[in-house]
Design a protein that fits this description.
Layout: H1 3-9, E1 15-18, H2 27-41, H3 48-54, H4 59-70, H5 76-90, H6 100-109, E2 114-118, H7 122-128, H8 133-136, E3 141-144, H9 159-166, E4 177-180, H10 183-190, E5 201-203, E6 209-210
Parallel strand pairs: 1-2, 1-4, 2-3
Antiparallel strand pairs: 4-5, 5-6
Amino acid sequence: MSEAKLLKTKPKVTHVIFDVDGLILDTERVYTECLEEICSQFGKTFTWDIKSKQMGRKERESAQIFIDYFNLSITVDEYIEKLRAKLDEKLPSTPLLPGADKLIRHLHHHKIPIALATGSDSWGYSRKISGHKELFSLFHHCVLSSDDPDVKHGKPAPDCFLVCAQRFGDNPRPDEIEVLRSNLARLYRSCGINFELRYLSLKMQQMAPRQVSLQV
C-alpha cells in the first residue's frame, strides 16, 4: 500500500499516552549514574544487559532483578534505600529531552487529551517532575505502575498503558490512542543520533511497534 493510501486509511488519533523516563525526561542517564555508583560499592560493573532487564519494572521487582543478577547479599529494602538516597539528590534537576516540551504543549493547545504511564512510584515521580510542574500539569492523568493496584504487571507488560487508556473520561477506542514510548529514543541516542521526540508509538489496539509522524 502506498504511503498516501496508508495515511487515508489510518484512524484519527484523538488521545496520546506518554512514557516518562527517556522520553520526556533525561532520567535514564540519572538512573545509570546512580546504579553505576551502587555497583562500584560491590566491585561490580553496571552494563546495558542489566539495565535493559530493569527498565520500566516496578520498584521492588527492579530491585530484586538487580540483586539476583549480581548475586548480592542485600535485601530489596536495603537496595531501595541506597538507590533513593542517590536519586533524592539528582532527580530534581533532571532536564527535559529535546522536543518533549514542544510536543506536549502542541497537543494540549489543540485540546488532544494526553496522559502519562510510567513505571515510577509516587516517591520517584514527585522528584522527577519537581522542576517541571507546570508542564506536567497539562496531562489529564498519570498512572504510576509501582503504586497503582490496577497495574498487575510492570513493563514490558502493557498493563500500565492499558490502565492509563481506560482512565480517559470519554472512553476513546483503542485505535484512536497513540502510546509514545522511550524504546526508540533510547536506541537513537545510544547510536549518537541527535534525536527529537517526533515519532515513537504503539497502537493501543495492536500493542505492536509502528512509526507515526507527529508534526510539531
